[in-house]
Write a structure and sequence with these properties.
Elements: H1 2-17, E1 23-24, H2 38-45, E2 47-52, H3 61-64, H4 68-87, E3 92-97, H5 102-107, E4 113-117, E5 125-126, E6 134-140, E7 155-159, H6 166-177, E8 182-186, H7 189-197, E9 203-207, H8 208-215, E10 222-230, E11 233-237, H9 242-257, H10 260-268
Parallel strand pairs: 1-3, 2-3, 2-4, 7-8, 7-9
Antiparallel strand pairs: 4-11, 5-11, 6-9, 6-10
Helix pairs in contact: 4-9, 4-10
């Protein structure tokens, strides 16, 4: 009888692990070696290990990134959809949560994919972008400013916390444009918008997605007058995983063409813009 119970337990555990719903990665699961045969190895394993932002950010982070929950929800949904399309209906996705440098997990061989944004740094390759993202310059709807140069001599709030330090990017942007303005560092968009509404600053430079989230319910909407830096949402993977990258890009193209990515974004509350 004892051996029968043990056997039943093994069957139940095996059945649960074959479900297609996302699960937290087990410490015993490790990615396959990189190379031309990586996609074949992943299909044999029946799972993708995906680095993703944490589900419950530390205290204060939610205030720094007002769109954290929406970004995480969309990334999880896309990772799950990709897993099913690339590996098959019985495959699963194992999430590895990390606040920052998720692409670093791919570089170190601890994850197969990383949900992040495309940039030029790091020893990884990126998929096609699936949503617009980055840093923008906004003013109140009633402002007469229509371009960045109109803010010369004024004070601009720029966020310092979150995945993208908009304050550092803003300094380079103003310098390159030859614009002399005072940057007022703010810990997050909520503080920056409060300063804008109080008339303490003339504009805000910050996360494009977070600004779109904060638009809802505002008495006076803000208006984008410049794109400061483009950081579209994309998926990082190893540079030599060419077959995997082709499969990811093909799946993303299908999801975009079918309208599935905008639909997933709507469910996640993510303010989707085409990349």
């Amino acid at each position: 009888m004892r051996s029968l119970v043990t056997a039943l337990i093994v069957v139940v555990v095996a059945t649960a692990c074959s479900a297609s719903a996302p699960t937290t990665a087990s410490p015993t699961v490790s990615p396959s070696p990189a190379g031309a045969d990586l996609l074949t190895a992943l299909r044999a394993r029946g799972s993708l290990i995906v680095a993703i932002r944490v589900s419950a950010p530390p205290a204060g982070v939610q205030q720094q990134d007002v769109a954290h929950a929406q970004k995480r929800a969309l990334e999880a949904a896309i990772a799950s959809a990709l897993t099913l399309r690339i590996l098959g209906a019985n495959a699963r996705v194992d999430f590895k949560e990390l606040g920052r440098d998720r692409a670093g997990l791919v570089e170190r061989g601890e994850a197969d994919l990383a949900m992040t944004f495309a940039e030029t740094t790091g020893n990884v390759a990126f998929s096609l972008p699936y949503a617009a993202g980055g840093v923008v310059l906004v003013v109140k709807g009633s402002s007469r400013a229509t371009e960045a140069r109109a803010l010369a001599g004024q004070t601009i709030a720029a966020t310092t916390m979150g995945e993208i330090n908009a304050n550092e990017i803003a300094q380079a942007f103003l310098r390159d444009k030859g614009i002399t303005a005072t940057l007022s560092p703010m810990p997050g968009l909520s503080a920056a918008f409060a300063a804008l509404d109080a008339g303490q600053v003339a504009a805000v430079i910050g996360d494009r997605t977070g600004i779109a989230v904060l638009q809802h319910g505002r008495a006076e909407p803000v208006r984008v007058i410049a794109e400061v830096a483009s950081r579209p949402y994309a998926i990082a993977m190893r540079k030599d995983a060419t077959a995997l990258r082709a499969a990811v890009n093909s799946a993303l193209a299908d999801l975009t063409a079918s309208g599935e990515i905008p639909r997933l974004a709507g469910t996640a509350g993510f303010p989707y813009e085409s990349p």
